[in-house]
Write a structure and sequence with these properties.
Shape: globular
Distance between the termini: 16 Å
Order of helices and strands: EHHHHHHHHHHHEEHHHHHHHHHHHEEH
CATH class: Mainly Alpha
Strand order of the largest sheet: 4-3-5
Number of helices: 23
């Protein structure tokens, strides 16, 4: 069976190649989530080992926030590089950085407090760079591999590896701490110090297993066909992916638009065609990450505040505290995060991206504002608190935490798709940093000597008001959703077609559109962009 490379991704049924692409692409999200969300347990142990009770608030914020700074840089740099060098060439770089940094995070140049914290921050910064670079690559590659009918589900499945990574990190922390506690009832400083290093370094193992297959992934058809106009390479790459022979685009009649040099990211043409969409994806990701990272990275503080996890005295077992925090995170992941991903995969292509995002933001706001106003009641009934708190993760993973990743990969032309996705993700990490710093201070009790406060922690406005601010952020994110386009059921080439037609019909020097269109059986050999009519793509299967 012969298939055309530029249309193969729209009509090919879901098959083994898609499942393997989901696993290989998703491993970056798995590794990133594992390393990001195992840090509450790790920082707790480091606080007990090096600060006698807990890390000072500023040090805790730096250890958590330095990775987010690396994410910001990785989003921008590797997002841009993916459009210049190609998706596949950059893909291995990001995973390699993550593997090396995961291993390095468990090492340090000495055993003093300053040496441990400095080396941990250094490697976690570069870990963030690798994770940040992986976001635009994984999202754009999966979008360009998937057929139009199931593209949202495939991309949501890739993103669901984040939830599996969070759960795995918690399970590993529980297992390692329980094993050391059982094997060494009386432990030295060195043995306790080894626990957090093992937890961090294990994060490199799954990524290492998929490195070979990631390097073997073929380039998607979109970049060589639409940007480089090399149909022969596109056909070869997609034949390797789906296991079917393909003909080059020049054998299929299409519409060829002979046009000026394509407009750039900072041009008036981009602002006219995609400016609103980019602002929308940036703002939605910004407000989504404020909530998600604030509640996710400071779970242990939330659990202590409502009394689910008690503050242990100085003589309590350090590993018992690590185990309890990891167990709490695992329960939240099992009951909220993973189910949210599952229902997101199920409904994203049925309801559409915008509806699901509005739905998610709305119920996140309801849950968070409810926690704020009923906080005193929930402190006495922590089981009810946990039920509502778990729902915030459920609705986040069902809606905005997934859709903010998916929509930017579907909304922009192929030649700048990775760059725009990186910019949107970077805006999200700005929100995450603001949320992390703000929540870490604001959530502290307004009363001195609170039962869940530690020495050296500043007084804040209290957990209830912090939840209220997060609820307001979700409301604003809901409103920003109406700035983004609905991409459900639309071919990725629609953004190319709309931009080109808009340029020809509105540009002052573009001339007549009819004079610029000609039918040609040798389009791939010319210097023009080949855009097939929708009727030529065939129906989605």
């Amino acid at each position: 069976m012969e298939l055309n490379a530029s249309s193969i991704v729209k009509i090919v049924r879901a098959q083994w190649c898609h499942l393997s692409a989901i696993i290989v692409s998703g491993m970056g999200f798995f590794t990133g989530a594992y390393n990001l969300f195992c840090i509450p347990a790790v920082s707790t142990l480091l606080g007990r080992l090096h600060y006698e009770e807990a890390m000072p608030l500023l040090i805790n914020a730096v250890v958590n926030g330095i990775t987010l700074c690396g994410l910001f840089i990785g989003h921008l740099f590797f997002g841009w590089l993916g459009d210049r060098m190609g998706r596949r060439k950059v893909y291995g770089m990001t995973l390699g950085i993550m593997i090396a940094s995961s291993i390095g995070s468990g090492l340090s140049i000495g055993r003093s407090r300053s040496a441990v914290i400095a080396s941990l921050c250094f490697f976690r910064f570069w870990l963030g760079v690798g994770i940040g670079g992986d976001y635009p690559k994984s999202a754009t590659i999966m979008a360009e591999y998937a057929n139009t009918k199931n593209r949202g589900a495939f991309m949501a499945a890739v993103f669901s590896m984040q939830a599996i990574g969070i759960l795995t990190g918690s399970i590993v922390a529980m297992t390692v701490s329980a094993c050391f506690k059982a094997a060494y009832p009386e432990r030295s400083f060195g043995l306790n110090d080894l626990v957090w290093r093992i937890i961090l370094m294990i994060g490199a193992v799954p990524a290492g297993f998929t490195f070979y297959w990631r390097m073997k992934m073929p380039e998607s058809a979109h970049l060589p066909t639409i940007v480089a106009q090399n149909a022969r390479n596109a056909a070869a790459d997609m034949s390797e992916l789906v296991g079917s022979s393909m003909i080059e685009d020049e054998a299929n009649t299409g519409i060829i638009l002979r046009r000026r040099e394509p407009y750039g990211l900072f041009s008036k043409a981009f602002l006219r065609n995609h400016g609103r969409h980019l602002v929308g994806t940036m703002l939605c990701w910004f407000f989504s990450d404020i909530t998600f990272y604030s509640t996710g990275l400071f779970q242990k503080d939330v659990y202590r505040a409502v009394g689910w996890i008690k503050k242990l005295d100085d003589h309590a077992d350090e590993l018992e505290e690590v185990f309890q925090i990891a167990k709490a995170q695992a329960l939240i992941a099992l009951s909220g995060t993973l189910p949210g991903c599952f229902f997101g995969i199920l409904f994203i292509d049925r309801l559409g991206r915008r509806k699901l995002q509005v739905f998610g933001f709305f119920f996140m706001a309801v849950c968070l504002i409810g926690l704020s106003f009923a906080y005193n009641y929930f402190k006495k009934h922590w089981d009810g608190f946990l039920a509502v708190y778990t729902l915030t993760f459920f609705f986040s993973m069902l809606g905005p935490n997934a859709t903010t990743l998916i929509v930017p990969a579907e909304s922009f032309p192929a030649r700048m798709r990775s760059t725009c996705h990186g910019i949107s993700a970077a805006a999200g990490k700005v929100g995450a940093i603001i949320g992390l710093i703000g929540f870490s201070y604001a959530s502290q009790s307004s009363h001195k000597n609170s039962s869940y406060s530690y020495e050296g922690y500043f007084n804040g406005i209290g957990m209830s008001k912090a939840f209220l601010f997060l609820g307001v952020a979700s409301c604003v994110g809901l409103l920003c959703t109406f700035l983004v386009r609905e991409t459900n059921g639309q071919a990725l080439e629609d953004s190319e077609r709309d931009a080109i037609l808009s340029e020809y019909t509105s540009g002052p020097t573009s001339g007549s559109l009819n004079d610029s269109i000609e039918s040609n059986h040798h389009g791939a050999e010319s210097s023009s962009i080949v855009l097939m009519e929708p009727s030529n793509f065939g129906q989605n299967l």
